TrEMBL record:
Family: Belongs to the glycosyltransferase 28 family.
Residues of the Erythromycin biosynthesis protein CIII-like C-terminal domain: 503-589
CDD domains for the chain: GT1_Gtf-like
Ranges annotated as biased composition (Low complexity): 62-74
Segments for region (Disordered): 1-98
GO biological process: carbohydrate metabolic process; fruit development; post-embryonic development; sterol biosynthetic process
Alphabetical UniProt keywords: Glycosyltransferase, Lipid biosynthesis, Lipid metabolism, Steroid biosynthesis, Steroid metabolism, Sterol biosynthesis, Sterol metabolism, Transferase
Protein name per Swiss-Prot or TrEMBL: sterol 3beta-glucosyltransferase
Catalytic class of the enzyme: transferase
Record keyword Glycoprotein present: no
Keyword Glycosyltransferase among UniProt keywords: yes
Classification via InterPro entries: EryCIII-like_C, Glycosyltransferase_28, GlycoTrans_28_N, UDP_glucos_trans
Domain Glycosyltransferase family 28 N-terminal, first and last residues per copy: 205-348
Length: 608
């Protein structure tokens, strides 16, 4: 199985049979990282053949008088320590022991066999044989697990992973066994986290963030708060966000990858799994660039000032693949924060998976972890060996492919998604991290006057999401606003919305306006469902319609609908005048606006 792209794992998983060729494929791929000595397998095979042939030969010689010419020597001394167990046996011989003839003068327990004259005096032989037996067991287990995953998943044309778990399937217990290698359990004293009198040293902290501006913004809020406590904080993210970070007076370091390319890839594939051959090279180039930039982000001097920097602690989001390996190489602590669930739970599925049965929710996280790990394993192991000087990692190592063994904080409100009961003490829901950009925002006078001269408008925008047909999407929005008699604010975003054929008084086009200032001016909001945008809309007490493009946006759309804060999500591919009009009508119902108002009273955050 290939290791340089997720597409390889999918192709191999679908094409490999349950034959011996599959076992050989797993062994071969495992040897790339485990450094298993393939000669051990050949050595065993050669020995078995030699043993079999020599044994058969001697059986034919039992009635012959030429047995005295045997190379086997018999000693009657008790000084030789020979076991009476079968292990004392017949390795590397060319004739059977004389004891086979029933010689009454010799006690079987006292037989000592000499080595063949042609045998290498390798005292480690028996140990190799013993280890080989264990290796065969491992290979058998890996093959079995791989077969289970082949039968468990189906990768859709849009790149999402469908996890189908039939009733009474044994796959759950099998994958539970696989996940058990993720590391030891932790017995933590929660009171340690609330000691405010303990002195905390000032640290150099590297924050590694991969994603769009919506992904970066909560970490920028976190960086500002850490800086207020005296830490030196470096926020490493894509070069596109350099000015955004620098304006917040936070040190910046560029990571590889282009968020526009990443967003386009995610939108086309609905996740991290390539949906076609044309997407493979894009994925590979972006992942390689990101991974290779992580170590310099934690160790290189400031690009502008030249001030030395070496991280003493690392904070990262999961898509910054390689974070745990850099932390391992530097010997520093690592803390994961994210705005979407990435820790296995039985309460809801992985946002990148489709799971029709609740019994498969927990397993969906293991499957997605493995698929991602198989896709990046080649890059990670190359990175570990060449850059970090660390040993490579095994093929089926979920411990290094997941974050389940790492302290993790999820940045959303526990009133919207409470902490699952099966998340242990290493995981917590910590609240939203708001940057509070609106306090310094100065809107154009023309915009303020437009807002004030009529009813509260509806906000419609899709942030950093790319659009296949900008004009068609704009026309749908304009017609839906017209049908419902509502005024609207259209946010151009990266999709370049707002290509009007004619101007209208009921619509205002904006660019780069802070949501924490804008949303309180609106009666409802329609957006892509990014975690930060969703949080800001609910904090403002706005009923919400989510038009998801990929990933966790579907997850947040479902959560908003379940809480009665808006209609069911409308995937961007299904957006129509009728559906958007119905969604606007739904949001403006008094009972929905009341629920949103109650949600406003519960809003809270970790960072302000």
């Amino acid at each position: 199985m290939g290791s340089n792209g997720i597409e390889c794992s999918r192709k191999d998983l679908q094409e490999e049979s349950v034959s011996n060729n599959r076992s050989k494929g797993v062994l071969k791929d495992s040897e790339q990282t485990d450094e298993v000595d393939e000669s051990a397998m050949e050595y065993r095979s050669s020995d078995d053949q030699s043993f079999s042939s020599c044994y058969e030969k001697e059986e034919n010689q039992k009635s012959s008088s030429e047995q005295k010419s045997s190379v086997i020597e018999v000693s009657e001394t008790k000084q030789s320590s020979v076991s009476s167990t079968p292990k004392r046996g017949l390795d590397h011989c060319t004739s059977a022991p004389l004891a086979a003839q029933g010689n009454q003068l010799i006690d079987d327990n006292e037989i000592a066999f000499s080595r063949s004259m042609t045998e290498k005096k390798n005292s480690r032989h028996d140990l190799k044989i013993d280890r080989l037996s264990e290796r065969e067991k491992v290979i058998e287990r890996l093959t079995r697990w791989k077969n289970l995953i082949v039968n468990l998943i189906k990768i859709q044309n849009d790149g999402t992973v469908e996890v189908d778990l039939p009733k009474n399937s044994p796959v759950a217990s099998e994958l539970l066994e696989l996940s058990s290698i993720e590391g030891p359990s932790f017995d933590l004293d929660d009171t340690l986290f609330y000691e405010t009198t303990k002195s905390i040293p000032r640290l150099n902290i590297a924050i590694l963030v991969v994603g769009t501006r919506g992904d970066v913004q909560p970490f920028l809020a976190m960086a500002k708060r850490l800086q207020e406590f005296g830490h030196r904080v470096r926020l490493a993210t894509h070069a596109n966000f350099r000015n955004f970070v620098k304006l917040a007076d936070i040190d910046f370091y560029p990571l590889g990858g282009d968020p526009r390319v990443l967003a386009g890839y995610m939108a086309r594939n609905k996740g991290l799994i390539p949906s076609g051959p044309g997407e493979i090279s894009i994925q590979r180039k972006q992942l390689k660039s990101i991974i290779e930039s992580l170590l310099p982000a934690c160790t290189e001097p400031d690009i502008e000032t030249g001030m030395p920097f070496r991280a003493q602690a690392i904070i990262a989001n999961p898509p910054a693949y390689g974070h745990s390996h850099v932390a391992e190489a530097l010997g520093v602590p690592l803390h994961i924060f994210f705005t979407m669930p990435w820790t296995p739970t039985s309460e809801f599925p992985h946002p990148l998976a489709r799971v029709p049965q609740s019994a498969g929710y927990w397993l969906s996280y293991i499957v997605v972890d493995l698929l991602i790990w198989w896709g990046i394993r080649g890059y990670i192991n190359d990175f570990r060996k060449k850059k970090l000087k660390l040993a490579p990692i095994a093929y089926f190592s979920t411990y290094n492919g997941s974050i389940s063994h790492l302290p993790t904080g999820y940045m959303w409100s526990s009133h919207l998604v409470p902490k699952p009961k099966d998340w242990g003490p290493l995981v917590d829901v910590v609240g939203y991290c708001f940057l509070n950009l609106g306090s310094k925002y100065r809107p154009r006078e023309e915009f303020v006057q437009w807002i004030q001269k009529g009813p509260q408008p509806i906000y419609i925008g899709f942030g950093s999401m790319p659009l296949d047909d900008t004009k068609k999407t704009t026309d749908v929005i304009l017609e839906a606003l017209k049908d419902t008699g509502q005024r609207g604010i259209i946010d151009r975003g990266w999709g370049d919305l707002g290509q009007f054929t004619e101007a209208t008084e009921n619509v205002f086009l904006i660019e780069d306006c802070p949501h924490d200032w804008l949303f309180p001016q609106c009666s409802a909001v329609v957006h892509h469902g990014g975690a930060g945008t969703t949080a800001t809309g609910l904090k403002a007490g706005c009923p919400t319609t989510i038009v998801p493009f990929f990933g966790d946006q579907f997850f947040w759309g479902d959560r908003v609908h379940q809480r009665g804060l808006g209609p069911a999500p409308i995937p961007i591919s299904e957006l129509s005048i009728e559906k958007l009009s119905n969604a606007i009508t739904f949001m403006l119902q008094p009972e929905v606006t009341q629920v949103a108002f109650v949600c406003l009273s519960y809003s809270h955050s970790l960072c302000y």
